[in-house]
Write a structure and sequence with these properties.
mainly beta, 805 residues, 5-stranded mixed β-sheet, signal, 5 helices, calcium ion binding, single chain, 4-stranded mixed β-sheet
Length: 805
Amino acid sequence: AAVSERCPVQVLCLSAFLSLPLARAEPIRYSVAEEAESGSLVGKLAEDAGLTPPQLSARRARLLSEDGRQHLRLEPGSGRLLVAGRLDREQLCAHSDTCMLPFELLLSDPLQFFRVEVTVDDINDHSPVFPKDRVTFKILERSDLGSVFPLEVARDRDIGSNNIQAYSISPNTEYFSVSYGSRSEDDKYLDLVLEKALDREEQAEMSFNIIAEDGGFPPRSGTTQVKIIVLDVNDNAPTFAQQVYIAKVQENMPEGTVVLTVLATDKDAGVNGDLSYELSEAEGQNDPSFLIDPKTGEIKLTKPLDFEEAQTHELTVRATDGGGLSAICKVLVEVGDVNDNAPELAVSSFSSPLPENTASGTVVALFTVRDRDSGANGKISCALDDQLFFSLRPAYKNYYELVTVSALDREHTAQYVLRVTAADAGSPPLTSTHTFTVDISDVNDNAPVFNQTSYTMYVRENNVPSVLVGAVSAADADEGLNAKVTYSLAPGPAAERPSCSCISVNSENGHVFVLRPLDYERLKHTEVTVSASDAGSPPLRANVTVRLVVLDENDNAPLVLYPAQDSSPASSELVPVAAQAGYLITKVVAVDADSAQNSWLSYHLLRATEPGLFSVAVQSGEVRLKRPVTERDSVKHKLLVLVTDNGKPPLSATAALSALLLKDFSDVRLPHSSPPADEHGDSLTTSLIISLVFVSLLFLVSSAVFVARKVCKSKELKAAHVLYGADNLQSGLADAAAAGTLPRAYCYEISLTTGSANSEFQFLKPILPSLPAQPYRERKCTIKSSFGLYVGLAFCPHQTVWEIH
């Protein structure tokens, strides 16, 4: 039964860590008898280590031995140490006085070692064995009493009291006795001693057994048969030059190498002086490694020796002369170690894959190295090829840990191939390598990245619903679900105006759609924020701004502002008959709600009562006399001006206006102190005054109707996005001015007096050369007559106001 060795206080001492922080300072010791049955109890290892069975399971306890063989096993449920298989002490430890099986109890989480030593106790399971079953001695009949005839001692593989304790002769004979003992610790002898003189004539031959008996219980014995042949006188036995020969041979010496030569001499002459040599090896050598020349005594190798199998070989050489006398010497062959074994690396634990956010110092692998050579040839050093992210750290004895030393990044390196090289200190050194392939598993540490910092997309107004206008694209450096990107519209800041709800983005491919038709005149551009989010936990996201620009289509026809094109009769422009070619009659003012070239307006005279009398400026819309007025020309003329934009296809509008030709308009005067020159002149003056009053009244009525129409149509104009408010009129006119359709605003002052002999109109230069950024100013036209009538016209942002003074 197994017996645990206890500390003086009968409790196993769990010492504090000394030089090795991961290992127990004092080993846990047990003993077990060899040949114990499998499953036999060796000791309560968990209890002696201060652990509980659940802790052993939780910390993945396992036993590690240097030679990799598992003679013992740990029972997980109870924490007991049991025999795993047959234990043969002689096979494990040969003739060593003590046989110890060292191993380590390895625990994980955290890493911890317990050194355990199990001593295998010897039992008497081997019988003594003689090298030869039969031994023949040829002894001269005149041999002296007390003559010694050496025998080869028997060998018992057991030790201590189970080894050979005594020799005896059976059956007992009065002629011989046995003498045995030890000259030194390793030099034992067995001699056959002549106790009574031999008489060949009385008994020429005799036989008996030599029995070797050990001290076991029950005792075991071994037997060899001795045959005695009584010869005539040969009174000198061979003698070796030395009783013990020692030779040193390197383990890599080839077959046939001479180890040494033994030499024996015999003083006899003739046949009695001729010697022959024979060799016997120690018990257990089934495959002899040595051969002796029977004539010369030269010992040679029959095969190369192996230091790792046996460091010494003990040989027995017998020299026998022709008369049958013999002598024995011992030959000790010491095998010299040669660096012929490369280091061996055994992996105890290995973790792969490894998360990329693994902390520095994490143990990736635990392994042990050993070298079967001795001395410097067995000293091992380990090195790691790449020590940028990993390094080797000695753990305990010949154990090493492969640990991380810096942060890992799967996106930079997804797999590390680490080569660990173990080299001994031999000359030349031998090396062995082991490759650890460490896969790095992904962690969601990279947010999606858009391929552009911002996106600008274009769509033409009046688009079809759900039209594709572009796509956003983001990539994620992670893998798997951590790299799966989905797109969505991100809500803007609460302080900002909400973005257009007409935009949608496909969550899978990032395609951007416009859901409904857009109107350039309502919405010229808008911005939305698109968010790209991965499927990691927690998800990471990135945002990008998408600017949607609406492109103008020519979908708005020009709108004539002046002259007003309502249901009331068109106002008449007064033209003096004395006016010359190029005389400015009026200006057609029109705007277009579109932009760019779609709002570039051109003016053309479409129809006129007298087409050759009038011309219209293509760019400005100014209506001028094309030639001087003649008497054949009609007094009243009707004109139709075509206003066309520059779109494709172009849209147009028409403006109808009329012109009155007045004769001597500038010379019409009223009488003052002097009487009229003649009756015809008074009649003409009266007619002119009546006409002027009529025209003024007509102008007032027309203006009032125009104002009323404008007020009624203000809502319609706003719905059509042609707004002429305080801000919209300014921006609309500014666009028209920029496009060249409304280059200037004019203010004219007209003075009429009845006493003038000639017609006179004064057209002043434009007061406003361009449209400024300040609010729209009123334009005022004043008509003054000598009879005290002033008519003032003011244009306001929302209506037209007439002032009469």
